[in-house]
Design a protein that fits this description.
The complex is a heterodimer of chains A (412) and B (337). Chain A has one domain: Rossmann fold (3-Layer(aba) Sandwich). Chain A is 36% helix and 8% strand. Chain A has helices at residues 72-97, 111-120, 134-138, 144-152, 184-199, 217-229, 249-252, 277-292, 324-327, 333-343, 349-372, 396-407; strands at 126-128, 205-210, 233-239, 242-243, 246-247, 269-273, 298-303. Chain A is globular. A five-stranded parallel sheet of chain A has the order 1-2-3-7-6, with helices on both faces. Chain A has a two-stranded antiparallel ribbon with strand order 4-5. By secondary structure, chain B is of the alpha/beta class. Chain B has helices spanning 6-20, 44-48, 60-72, 91-98, 101-104, 134-138, 151-163, 229-240, 257-267, 282-294, 317-320, 324-336, and strands at residues 2-3, 24-28, 53-55, 76-80, 114-119, 144-146, 168-173, 199-200, 213-216, 221-225, 244-248, 251-253, 270-277, 303-307. Chain B starts with a strand and ends with a helix. The structure holds thiamine diphosphate and magnesium ion. Thiamine diphosphate (TPP) binds at residues 130, 132, 180-182, 210-213, 240, 242-244, 306, 310 of chain A.
Chain lengths: 412, 337
């Protein structure tokens, strides 16, 4: 081999067998990352793309310019939302393992981001989520039973068994139908926001994407359109460090952060501790206000860690050390918010246990109700009419195929 | 009644639809102030303002992806892809998104959107300005695919497409923009002003999606064609003396199977003509349908006259183009069986 330059093939920080030591990662204290005015020019905010907005410090106190005005009651709602998401995930993952459905995806460790963001949004706003934002539905009060019906593809499944588990859709709850094709929703969010502006409605769209999927062209198209037309959209990158087995550096390249990708587009870019509910809520409010005041898009990189496997089909022990999540320096969002409430004197270990028990019971009851409508392999199917809704009206060639299927004698 | 070119009638359809419905918005590369490279959107921005007709960045993915988001939010976008050859960056958004959103969300979200794109060759456009990708759309459930061949149809079909609540791919044979073209490239160009199908009524009318039309009644052989090939087939019929029945499909999905089968049952012979490459082209689908539904009426094998399975060449454009000589030869063949 001669000494000609070689490619750099990115490697994860740690591999199975390594002791994951994150001490090299610099975690700024709350207060280290400033809070610009909402109407500041993008070029005056470039430093924020390299920062890390935090409110909750290691001492469990809320400090710094991004401190939120959430009351103890609101914080408790946040805690409850996150605990509900986690318990929901736990039960549905177990149901998948019991063979009651084909597939499941958890968002363990990432609950603060979607729960806080949804709480900061208005009812008229619209999310274009990925499969890891179940918190957007749960924090908005979407019935757990309906979600489970979808996961089970049972007779009450709101989308009639047409999609993989967790690919929810609810216009009513500001949740665009999830696609299995990564990144497509990011540019659609920009279009939705442009339409709101064209119609003269002050409604905001929020696009969601994972660190890995930012490599898709859809991400870049969304950034161009959002910047060019100054659409009222908040563009969220959830950097949970992994894209299945690929480390986030594979999509990030030599950029220092994902947030800095906003700078070239002239889009203000913030980088946030995604395991800090208070910081998440505060930044969401800031970006949503910016959009609502007609000041254009914001890009947010939410720094978090995907504690669970990628999906029910994944085995992370093949590519990362088992204790990586435990060593992750930004901690766990539920524990951190609970500790903060305890620090405020608004919460206790006993109360926390009571709440956990109560949520466990609530989710158990919901699951029993959902299963009374069937699971993937048991009970009646949602509908056997797969031809309905391909088009608004069934065209002749589909009607013909439908008649063929109907007439087949092997069908019960 | 005014005679219009196909460009003028497409432009007119835009005016009529935008006048009737505030939800109709038009965007694409160079479509705003400039009015599009073929001028199909000229004057729209001036009349309806920059929020209803505007230029898009050069990102077909972005144009279609944004249009999907807009359609989901109550607008009725009619977007232009500058040439059909440039739709590939948008293909995922068309196939995986626009086409399936109604079904996958059980109607919770829908995509009433029209994607216009100039298609076909015969203009020395080389491989990047000549393609006919219709089969890449007809293969996708959830899309409608339309190909007009006259100024009258172009306006009526475009209005029907924009008003349709499903995504419609609207392929404009660019060789027909300024006049009918029968494939005799060495003869003088015939302008639309000399052609009666260029009579375009004022105001609103639609040509329904899913209805084909007989352009030339005949008894000997059914020729199925669309877009530019309609005129090629008509010329071949006149020049051969064979009494061909030429059907202009107008809409590929939904397809007017009834009219096709009725005709083949009458003539007993069928030729399928398209400019697109041959293998897995829409002609294969047509041939399959005809043999499934009219096999016992056939007196000869169904034949295809199509573009070759090569990239669309520049200098050798007429070697590629399935012109009237090739159609005529196949017509004589099937008559001899
Ligand atoms: C276009 C496309 N390519 C590949 C996949 C397969 N796939 C599903 S999830 C995933 C990883 C995505 O990682 P990231 O964007 O970081 O999101 P995360 O799963 O971490 O939330 C891949 C490769 C897909 N669904 N769509
Ligand atoms: Mg990821």
């Amino acid at each position: 081999m001669d000494d000609s330059p070689r490619l750099k093939i990115p490697e994860p920080r740690f591999k199975p067998g390594d002791d994951p030591d994150f001490s090299g990662i610099e975690i700024p204290a709350p207060g280290d990352t400033r809070r610009p005015d909402v109407d500041a020019e993008p070029r005056e905010m470039r430093d924020l793309a390299d920062g890390l907005i935090r409110v909750l410090g290691d001492d469990n106190k809320a400090t710094g310019p991004w401190q939120s005005e959430l009351t103890a009651t609101q914080l408790l709602k946040g805690l409850t939302d996150m605990m509900r998401v986690r318990e929901f995930d736990r039960r549905m993952m177990a149901a998948q393992r019991q063979g009651k459905t084909s597939f499941y995806m958890q968002c363990t460790g990432e609950e603060a981001i979607s729960c806080a963001f949804r709480t900061a949004m208005a009812d008229t706003d619209m999310n274009f989520p990925t499969y890891r934002q179940q918190g957007l539905l749960i924090a908005h009060g979407y019935p757990l039973v309906d979600m489970m019906n979808q996961v089970y593809s049972n007779e009450e499944d709101p989308i009639k068994g047409r999609q993989l588990p967790i690919m929810y859709s609810s216009r009513e709850h500001g949740f665009f139908t999830i696609s299995g094709n990564l990144a497509t929703q990011f540019i659609q969010a920009v279009g939705w926001a442009m339409a709101a502006s064209i119609k003269g409605e002050n409604h905001i769209a929020a696009g969601w994407i994972g660190d890995g999927a930012t490599a898709e062209s859809d991400f870049h198209s969304a950034m161009v359109f959002a910047s060019t037309f100054q659409a009222p959209v908040v563009l969220n990158i959830v950097n949970n460090q992994w894209a299945i087995s690929s480390p986030q550096s594979l999509a990030r390249g030599r950029a220092d952060t994902f947030a800095v990708k906003g700078i070239g587009f002239g889009i203000p870019a913030l980088r946030v501790d995604g395991n800090d509910y208070l910081a998440c809520h505060s930044v969401a409010l800031w970006a949503l206000e910016r959009a609502r005041r007609g000041l254009g898009p914001t890009l947010i990189e939410w720094v978090t860690y995907r504690t669970a496997a990628h999906s029910s089909s994944d085995d992370p022990s093949a590519y990362r050390p088992p204790n990586e999540a435990a060593n992750w320096p930004l901690g766990d969002p539920i524990e951190r918010l609970a500790d903060h409430l305890i620090e405020l004197g608004e919460w206790s270990i006993e109360q926390h246990q009571d709440l956990a028990d109560q949520i466990e019971e609530e989710v158990r009851v919901a699951q029993a109700e959902a299963e009374s409508h069937g699971t993937l392999h048991e009970g009646p199917k949602p509908t056997r009419d797969i031809f309905e809704g391909v088009y608004e009206k069934i065209p002749p060639h589909l009607q013909k195929q439908r008649d063929l299927l109907e007439g087949m004698t092997w069908r019960e | 009644m005014a005679r219009m070119t196909m460009i003028e009638s497409i432009r007119d359809a835009h005016f009529v639809s935008m006048e009737a419905d505030d939800a109709v918005v038009v965007f694409g590369e160079d479509v705003g102030h400039f009015g599009g490279v073929f001028r199909c959107t000229q004057g729209l921005q001036e009349r309806f303002g920059k929020h209803r007709c505007f230029d898009a960045p050069i990102s077909e993915l972005g144009i279609v992806g944004a249009a999907i988001g807009m359609a989901a939010n109550g607008l009725r976008p009619c977007v232009e892809i500058q040439f059909a050859d440039y739709m590939y960056p948008a293909y995922d958004q068309i196939v995986s998104e626009a086409a399936r959103i109604r079904h996958r969300s059980v109607g919770d979200f829908t995509v009433p959107m029209t994607i216009r794109m100039p298609t076909g060759g015969g203009i020395y456009g080389g491989q990047t300005h000549s393609q006919s990708p219709e089969a890449l759309f007809t293969h996708v459930s959830g899309l409608k695919t339309v190909v007009p061949s006259t100024p009258y149809d172009a306006k009526g079909l475009l209005l029907a497409s924009i008003e349709d609540n499903d995504p419609v791919i609207f392929l404009e044979p660019k060789r027909l923009y300024n006049g009918p073209f029968d494939g005799h490239y060495d003869r003088p160009v015939v302008p639309w002003s000399k052609h009666e199908s260029a009579e375009v009524p004022e105001g609103h009318y639609t040509v329904p999606l899913g209805k084909a039309v007989v352009r030339r009644p005949g008894a000997d052989v059914t020729v199925l064609a669309y877009g530019t090939m309609v005129y090629v087939a008509l010329a071949a019929a006149e020049e051969s003396g064979i009494d061909a029945e030429v059907i202009d499909l107008r809409t590929l999905i939904p397809l007017d199977t009834e009219l096709i089968i009725e005709s083949v049952k009458k003539t007993g012979r069928c030729i399928v003509v398209h400019e697109a490459t041959r293998t897995s082209g829409f002609g294969a689908e047509l041939a399959a349908i005809v043999q499934e539904e009219a096999f016992f009426h056939l007196e000869a094998p169904i034949r295809r006259v199509t573009g070759w399975d090569t990239p669309y060449p520049h200098a050798q454009e007429w070697d590629y183009f399935p012109g009237p000589d090739r159609v005529r030869a196949v017509m004589s063949d099937v008559m001899e069986v």
